[in-house]
Each structure stands twice: as C-alpha cells, then as structure tokens.
Design a protein that fits this description.
This protein has 406 residues and is α/β, with parallel strands linked by helices. Helices cover 38% and strands 13% of the residues.
Length: 406
C-alpha cells in the first residue's frame, strides 16, 4: 500500500460525512461526475413507486390536494432555500434552468427600466451584461432576453464586471462557479458592485448549490436560478428552481405568466392577475413525478443532519487531496490544472487541461473512473462530498496517471 493510499484510508476514517455515503446507490466505479448528474439515493425508487402506484394509481386527481401535489413547488423550494442561504418563501421549484434564467433576466430588466421611469429623469437602462464564459444556454437565453427587452448584450468576464457597469446597465447574469474550470466567482463583491450601479444581479447557481455556501439573503442577491440534478442529486432532468428576494416579489413581472402563477388559478379568468410571493415564478402544471423524486432526494440533508458548511469543508479537502495525488501520479507536463488553487476561488470540481482529453476520458471510463470531457481539451472531475470518499480520489488520480503514461 502506498503512502497516498494510507493517507486516503486515514482521511476516510476521520470523515464526519462518511456514513452518508451508505444512502446512495454506488458500485465499484469511481464516480466523479456528480457535477453533471448526481448519484441515486437508495430510498428514492420506493418513494417514486408510492407516487406512481398510490398517489396517481389510487388517489388519482385527489392527490393534487390530498398528496400535496399543488403546493409541491413552494414546499420543495422551502427545503432548497437553506441550502442556498435563503429564508422560506423565496424559492419556487419548476421548469428548467434555461426557462428560469429567462424569467429572472427579463424580470430584472423590467424592474430596472421601471426604476428609471419612476424617477422621471433616470438613466435609460438598456444594457445587459452576461458572463462571457457562461454555459452556452445561459448565453442564448440572455441574447433572446436582450432582443425582447430592447437591450444591448455585452459579454464580460466576471472579474471585469465592476469596470464594465454603467448607468445604462439594467441587469447582470453571472455564474457562481464556472462550469469548465471550477472557478468560484466572488458573489458578494460582484453583487455589491451591480447594486452600486443601480442594476439587478441574476446568479446561476447550478455548480454551487449543494456543494458550498451561497448566502443569497446575506448578500442581497436579487434573483437566482439553479438546477437540482447535480450536487442536489434530484435525478436526470429534475426541475430547476427560482429565487426571488422577498422585497422584490411584488414587482416580479414574469415574461411567462401562466395559470399556476395566477392569483386565482381556478378562477379561469381571461385577465392575468399575478399571485403574491414566490408563486409568481410558477408557469404551468408542474412535473409531479420528477418533482417528488427531488423531494425524496433532499431528505438526506435533514435526516443525516448535513450542513452546507461541513460539505464545503470536505469538498475542499477532497479537491486538495486530488490535486496532491495528481501531482504524485501523473507524469510532469501531461496535464495542467485550470482550477484555482486558492480555496476562495474554487468550486467543487477540478478541471485538468490535457491535449488528448477526449480519448483520455474515454479510457478512464473504460477503467472504472467516470468524469467528463469538455471540448477542446478539459478533463472535469466533480466531487460530491455526500458520497465521494478520499479512497475514490486516490484511485482516480492513480488510474489517470497510468492512463496518460500509456
């Protein structure tokens, strides 16, 4: 047994989250792709079977009330809220991340433009700034939102946002963690800069929620969105969520008003009147099967008493150890980390630049180490502290070293 293997054993033995691993369906594969799709929890299939056989099969339409289907988007939103640092009543679950980005960004621009009109002589807010390194879908949505609202769209690197803000800026769409590199951006400072310019901040939390503290309420974030199938382990295609800060809810003007967000959804009125609270973020009938699978997946946080702080501590330890193991096992010059070494700038993944990354990842998967590849040359490894252990980390780096050495 090598020194690094002994170290991994010691770290696993001292890990306060080690017992949580037993709640997940895992096998001999070293799974480091939870930043794309989280692992299945063992009790979720039984919960989904109950939803299908009893709630749908026996109660049928009665389940909208008796099984709590109708209120599930807000109820489950309240369970996600503490994981992103929000009080209850500000998160609603439903639709995809892309749809929620659209809702949030257009609503942010509308509020900014309303601010200008309200002052009588305020600046014309006709510009949207978007993270230049954003996930493509966010960029596509931002471009469409700009056209819809009559705004110019300016791609800007997150670090350059403070200098790019101006009196014409209406809204800024940013990623908390860069999906390629794993870089963690400074949410508190960037939000403060956006507010100082009189604009609204919209944050994409897909690669941070469930892996590290966010602090939406603490830092005064206006609007935020995120998916639930990565570090929240909600399942493939599980619904996303939308955060609307409490004081902004009366002004949240969704570009997708649907009957589920109506003040009287069963009144069947031809005129739209928005509901109060975060319910304004709903659109149409929720996807109940995926929604309730997600609800079951969130049980681990409450039932195991898992804190986001503990998850963050382990995340940093896992990624530190992985980088150490890569340094020991991988031949010099074969890979290069593009993930920041500084803890304050690192999410819960490590991205390694490798000339033949696509082929290397294919061989890694064949050898039982699952990460993923991002064109043109990045190997991504995601570390979900709820079920990834230090032995997994050591094995992944050891197999990587053998693979790239030929």
């Amino acid at each position: 047994m090598s020194e690094l293997q002994r170290t991994a054993e010691e770290l696993d033995a001292a890990d306060p989250l080690a017992a949580v691993r037993g709640r997940f369906v895992l096998d001999d594969v070293t799974y480091l792709d939870g930043n794309s799709l989280g692992a299945l929890q063992a009790h979720v299939p039984g919960r989904v079977e109950d939803v299908v056989r009893r709630q749908w099969g026996e109660l049928r339409i009665r389940s909208w009330e008796e099984s709590g289907w109708w209120t599930a988007p807000e109820r489950i939103g309240d369970r996600i809220a503490p994981l992103v640092g929000a009080a209850a009543g500000q998160v609603v679950v439903g639709d995809s991340t892309s749809v929620n980005v659209f809702k949030a960004l257009v609503a942010a621009v509308r509020m900014a433009q309303e601010d200008g009109r309200g002052g009588g002589a305020g600046p014309v807010r006709d510009e949207i700034l978007v993270d230049a390194t954003t996930f493509p879908s966010d960029g596509y949505i931002a471009e469409s939102a700009a056209r819809m609202t009559g705004c110019a769209l300016r791609p800007v690197a997150p670090a350059e946002v403070p200098g790019a803000l101006g009196e014409r800026t209406a809204a800024v769409l940013l990623n908390h963690v860069d999906y390629r590199t794993g870089r963690l951006h400074d949410l508190p400072a960037l939000t403060a800069a956006v507010h100082a310019a009189g604009a609204y901040a919209v944050w994409d939390l897909c690669h941070s929620a469930g892996a590290l503290p966010v602090g939406l309420d603490e830092h005064g974030v206006d609007l935020a969105v995120g998916c639930t199938y990565k570090y929240l382990n909600g399942g493939p295609g599980s619904p996303a969520y939308l955060y609307v800060r409490r004081d902004l809810q009366p002004r949240f003007d969704s570009p997708l008003p649907g009957w589920n967000s109506h003040a009287e959804p069963f009144g069947m009125r031809s005129e739209y009147a928005p509901a109060s609270g975060a319910v304004r973020g709903r659109v149409g009938t929720p996807d109940i099967l995926s929604l309730l699978a997600l609800e079951a997946a969130l049980d681990v946080w409450d039932e195991e008493g898992v804190s986001v702080a503990a998850v963050r501590t382990k995340s940093l330890a896992l990624t530190d150890f992985f980088l150490r193991c890569v340094g020991e096992y991988v031949p010099d010059g074969r890979v290069e980390s593009v993930t920041p070494a500084a803890h304050a700038e690192r999410g819960s993944q490590v991205a390694l630049r490798c000339d033949d990354a696509g082929e290397v990842m294919k061989r890694l998967i064949e050898r039982g180490v699952v990460g993923d590849y991002r064109a043109p040359d990045v190997l991504r490894f995601g570390f979900t502290p709820l079920y990834v252990g230090f032995a997994d980390v050591e094995r992944a780096a050891r197999v990587l070293g053998r693979t790239v050495a030929g």
